[in-house]
C-alpha cells in the first residue's frame, strides 16, 4: 500500500497496511482490489463499492462519509497509468525461444533472447535486435530490421527493406510496407503501375494498432517518427511523414506525401488529401476532412472541408435550424 502511494506520489487517508491483489472497475470491484475515480459521474458507485482502496484527486470532496481507504493524487490519469503499468509488468508476458514450426533463414540475424512463434517466417537478411518477440503467423521480409524489445503480434506482415525501431508494438494483422497506390493512366484509359521502390521507417517507441496499413514510399521512405501512436484500422499512404508524439484515432485515412507535424491529434474517421502539410500541435475533430495546408500551429479544426472548430460549431448551430424556417 505504501509502495503504491509512493509510486503515484499520493497521500493515504485510511488504512496504510492494506494489501492489494488487483485493479478493478469501480462498478464491480471486490475486497482487496483497487479502483480509480476519474469521472465524477461514477461517484455514486464509490459509496457502495466493496473495493479496499480508491485513487482520487486532491480536489475531490466526497458527498457522503467514505469507509474506503483513499490515495489522493494530483492527477488521477497519471496515477492510473503508473499503477496499471506496475501490475502489467508483474505478470510474465515475455516469450523466449524459436518455435520448431517457424521458418528462420540462416542468413538472418537475431539478438539475444528473441522469440519467434509457430508459423512465422524470418526472411534472409532480416535483423532482429535483443528481446524482440515475433508472435505466430508473422511474415518478416528480406532485409527488414527490428530494434530491441519490439513486439510483433500475430499475423503482422512487414515487407522487404522496412525498418522498425526499438520498444515498438505492432498489433495483429497490420501490414507495413505494402505498395503505395501509384498508377499512371495511359492513352487507352488503362492504368500502368508505378514501381514502389522505397520503404517504411517506424522509429522508436511507436505503437501501431490492429489492421493498420502503412504503405512503402514510391521513392525514399514513409516515416513514422518516434513516439507516434496509431489506432486500429488506419491507412497511411506512400511517402507520408507523421511527426513525433502524434496520435491518430481509428479509421483515419492519410493520402500520399502528407506531412503531419509533431504532437498532432487526429480524431476518428478523419481524411487528409494528398500533399498536405499539417502544422505542429494541430487537433482535428472526428470525421473532419483536411483539404488545405494547416500552417498555424496549435489550431483545432472541424468539418469537411475543415475550418476552425469554433467557426464550424457556430455555423452548425444555424444549419440545424434551417429546416425549421
Would you mind describing this structure in some detail?
With 325 residues, this protein is mainly beta. The protein folds into two domains: 2-89, MurE/MurF, N-terminal domain (Udp-n-acetylmuramoylalanyl-d-glutamate--2,6- Diaminopimelate Ligase, Chain: A, domain 1); 97-312, UDP N-Acetylglucosamine Acyltransferase, domain 1, CATH 2.160.10. It is built from four helices and 38 strands. The strands form five sheets. Strands 6-9-12-15-18-23-26-29-32-35-37-38 form a twelve-stranded mixed β-sheet, covered by helices on one side. A ten-stranded parallel β-sheet has the order 7-10-13-16-19-24-27-30-33-36, with no helix packed on it. A nine-stranded parallel β-sheet has the order 8-11-14-17-22-25-28-31-34, with no helix packed on it. The longest helix is centred in the first third of the chain and has 14 residues, at 76-89. The mean pLDDT is 95.
List keywords for this structure.
single chain; mainly beta; 12-stranded mixed sheet; 10-stranded parallel sheet; 4 helices; flat
Fraction of residues in helix: 10-25%
- What is the CATH top level name of the largest domain? Mainly Beta
Domain module count: 2
Number of helices: 4
What's the CATH architecture name of the largest domain?
3 Solenoid
Stretches with pLDDT under 50, minimum 5 residues? none
The CATH topology of the largest domain comes to UDP N-Acetylglucosamine Acyltransferase, domain 1
What is the overall pLDDT average? Answer: 95
Percent range for β-strand residues: 25-35%
Question: Structural class, judged by helices and strands?
Answer: mainly beta
Total beta strands: 38
Largest sheet: 12 strands, mixed
Shape: flat
Query: How far from one another are the termini?
Result: 62 Å
